[in-house]
Design a protein that fits this description.
By secondary structure, the protein is mainly β. It has 3 domains: 2-110, Immunoglobulin-like (Sandwich), CATH 2.60.40.10; 120-274, Lipocalin (Beta Barrel), CATH 2.40.128; 284-437, Lipocalin (Beta Barrel). Helix content is 5%, strand content 43%. It is built from 4 helices and 31 strands. The N and C termini lie far apart (79 Å).
Length: 440
């Protein structure tokens, strides 16, 4: 004879959260004990290796709740993926028809990461990714603040904090491996890591957890704590170009739940960026995502006008190649400039036989205003070791004749236009350069 139990949300709420109503049939009889559970957990073997796909199976007359350390499942039969090697602890919790709860712990060994785990590429870039301290974070590389703000704005970058020049590499090619290096590039620790991006704590910025074994991240100690080393961290930000980890209080805590009183309490933050990270900025207009080539605008591309009054050539306007070829016979009207994302600037003639290489900088915080306070130059553009095409004053300008120019006011900077100006010293005369991106 069968008995049908309709499990309601209220009933399963004693054990589970966000549980949906479901209908299950069980043999009528007495509740079973944990010793009578017929459950199993095993790693799927592929070519003789125990993979990171774990098969969970419950053949007992109880409902199922599996906690496999990096996630949970409520299915009687399920296959789940884990992101770490070695022994994976699994806890099974069952609910008898009479409402009693039984528990049992299992262990599964994983030899090799064979199946792609969602989110792994964030940490490893698909193979291996090196993470360094975030030099661009406005509140520092490491420090403390309130959890909800994700800012180390209480205290940050204490002088000489240990491992302030260390970095770490996260790799999935030989399993999820973390290796830490000192500032000279010497390996100082190697272990494994795992993560869970599916267990946020409601009401907080916590996105999951990141855990290591055998080695850990640079400077893994709480700022005000007893220097106990942390191996488990909250994930606050996990993006291709940024990692932010945290622990709570002075003891590097990562509790399973966070109450409201901790939202503004002491939190330790670690800020990392990929080694090759370059922050997005106005320079991106010049460089694009990697590099971008610029040439003279189609017309009215060079000439002079009034300083603080004109924003493009207005007095003497050059639109023909012959004039520019005469002014700049090396690079001429067909010369071009390449700006790269790392701020490298290359000036070249048409066939590439003559080139100059240097760096360039855009600073939109430095503006130039007229006497009334109206902004004329919206920013500053400067170069080092190279000038722009025809980047000099004309040959009839007295003491400044043919003098190279390395700093300019920016009139326009956008994806399709770059206009700069340079004042002839001690005068109201200004020279303008207008460029556009090169098209095929």
């Amino acid at each position: 004879m069968k008995k049908i139990l309709i499990m309601t949300v209220a009933a399963c709420g004693l054990l589970f959260t966000a549980c949906n109503p479901q209908v299950m049939t069980w043999d009528e009889g007495s509740p079973i004990t944990a010793e009578e559970l017929n459950i199993s957990a095993r790693a799927l073997e592929v070519d003789g290796a125990k993979s990171n796909k774990i098969i969970l199976e419950n053949n007992s007359p109880v409902s199922s709740y599996w906690d496999f350390s990096q996630g949970t499942s409520r299915k009687a039969l399920d296959s789940v993926l884990v992101s770490s090697l070695g022994e994976i602890p699994i806890k099974f919790t069952g609910l008898n028809p009479d409402g009693t709860i039984i528990e049992k712990s299992l262990t599964v060994t994983v030899d090799k990461i064979i199946f792609k785990v969602e989110g792994m590429e964030i940490f490893t870039g698909g193979s291996s990714r090196t993470w360094v301290w975030d030099q661009y974070n406005e509140t520092g590389k490491f420090g403390i603040g309130g959890l909800v703000n994700i800012k180390a704005d209480w205290w940050n970058n204490p002088d000489g904090f240990t491992e302030d020049d260390y970095y770490m590499t996260l790799s999935e090619t030989a399993g999820p491996v973390i290796e830490k290096f000192d500032g000279s590039g010497n390996s100082v620790g190697k272990g494994t890591f795992s993560f869970n991006l599916k267990a946020p704590i409601a009401g907080t910025p916590i996105k999951g957890t990141f855990e290591t074994a055998g080695a850990t991240i640079p400077h893994p100690t709480a700022q005000n704590g007893p220097n106990n080393v942390a191996y488990k961290f909250y994930i606050l930000i996990a993006e291709d170009d940024q990692l932010v980890f945290a622990t709570l209080g002075s003891d590097n805590a990562t509790p399973s739940s966070v109450d409201e009183s901790q939202y503004y309490g002491e939190t330790n933050f670690w800020f990392f960026r990929p080694k090759d990270y370059i922050p997005s900025s106005e320079f991106d207009f010049l460089s694009g995502e990697t590099e971008k080539t610029w040439v003279w605008a189609e017309s009215e591309f060079w000439g002079n006008g009034g300083y603080l009054s004109n924003t493009a050539p207005a007095w003497w306007i050059v639109s023909d190649a012959e004039t520019i070829n005469g002014q700049d016979p090396v690079y001429g009207a067909d010369g071009y400039m390449v700006f790269k994302r790392d701020k490298t600037m290359i000036k070249s003639n048409a066939d590439g036989s003559t080139q100059e290489t240097g760096t360039a900088k855009v600073d939109m915080k430095k503006t130039t205003s007229d006497a009334s306070g109206k902004i004329w130059g919206i920013g500053k553009f400067s170069t080092n070791g190279v000038t722009v095409l025809n980047g000099k004053f004309p040959g009839d300008k007295g003491d400044y004749a043919n003098q190279p120019i390395y700093e300019y006011d920016i009139m326009v900077i956008s994806d399709d236009s770059f206009v700069i100006a340079a004042r002839l010293p001690e005068s109201d005369e200004c020279w303008f350069w207008r460029f556009k991106p090169k098209t095929e």
